[in-house]
């Protein structure tokens, strides 16, 4: 990948659809001295994404794109990203699948966080599936985004033990805690 860091911080757009705890965590990380990133934009496909409140709270630009027509939405997002000179995209609970064409425009510059130890449990309901299969461990993964869902090169993972008392809600909470450690660590690994 082309070297993005130097003296300047890498300009990031974070894409969200939900609560935004990873977004909040990344914003906090971006304000630390060691952070190679600056979060310049928050993008969502829905006004109901709770995480949008962090845009106002931390004074970051936000924009919501209507995905009724995916092609138009992606076209408008690309224009917006270029206008703001965004170098890199972090997906954090973004529930739309980006097209191959879009990904090509940001080749090697989009990462995602996924709540399982990929390549296990691509897609949704990862915790339910791990419990149902009596797995001893699950975890989370930061990976590059390619045209194939949850299949790009893995940057980093963290493991979480599954206990006999676990249900998907309890497990999701513990995995999310690890996600908050993993995402900044993965970004440091990429840019340092
Ligand atoms: C996380 O579990 C992430 O791994 C998945 O969606 C969830 C987003 O959570 N892709 P939040 O919105 O960051 O709290």
What would you note in describing this structure?
It is a single chain. The model has no long low-confidence stretch (mean pLDDT 96). This protein has 192 residues and is an alpha/beta fold. The radius of gyration is 16 Å and the shape is globular. Strands 3-2-1-4-5-6-7 form a seven-stranded mixed β-sheet, with helices on one face. Helix 1 packs parallel to helix 6 (168-191). It has helices spanning 21-30, 53-57, 70-83, 100-105, 126-132, 168-191, and strands at residues 10-16, 37-44, 61-64, 88-91, 110-114, 137-144, 154-161. The structure holds 5-O-phosphono-beta-D-ribofuranosylamine. Residues 16, 18-23, 51, 92-93, 113-115, 140, 176, 179 line the site of 5-O-phosphono-beta-D-ribofuranosylamine.
Keyphrases for this structure?
seven-stranded mixed beta sheet, alpha/beta, binds 5-O-phosphono-beta-D-ribofuranosylamine, 192 residues, 6 helices, globular
Helix content: 25-40%
- Distinct ligands, ions and cofactors found in the model: 5-O-phosphono-beta-D-ribofuranosylamine
Helix/strand order, N-terminal first: EHEHEHEHEHEEH
> What general form does the structure show?
globular
Taking Cα atoms only, what radius of gyration do you get, to the nearest Å? 16 Å
Enumerate the strands of the largest sheet in spatial order, edge to edge or round the barrel: 3-2-1-4-5-6-7
């Amino acid at each position: 990948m082309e070297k993005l860091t130097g003296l300047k911080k890498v300009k990031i757009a974070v894409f969200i659809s939900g609560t935004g705890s990873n977004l909040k965590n990344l914003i906090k990380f971006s304000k630390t001295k060691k952070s190679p990133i600056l979060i310049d934009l928050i993008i969502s496909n829905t006004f109901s994404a709770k995480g949008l409140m962090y845009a106002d709270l931390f004074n970051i630009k936000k924009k919501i794109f209507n995905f009724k027509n995916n092609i138009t939405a992606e076209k408008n997002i690309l224009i917006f990203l270029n206008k703001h000179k965004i170098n890199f995209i972090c997906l954090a609970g973004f529930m739309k699948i980006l097209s191959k064409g879009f990904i090509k425009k940001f080749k090697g510059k989009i990462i995602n966080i996924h709540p399982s130890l990929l390549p296990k449990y691509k897609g949704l309901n990862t915790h339910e599936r791990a419990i149902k299969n009596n797995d001893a461990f699950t975890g989370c993964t930061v990976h590059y985004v390619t045209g194939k869902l949850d299949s790009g090169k893995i940057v980093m993972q963290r493991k979480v033990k599954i206990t006999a008392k676990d249900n998907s809600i309890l497990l999701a909470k513990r995995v999310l805690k690890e996600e908050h450690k993993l995402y900044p660590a993965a970004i440091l690994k990429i840019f340092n």
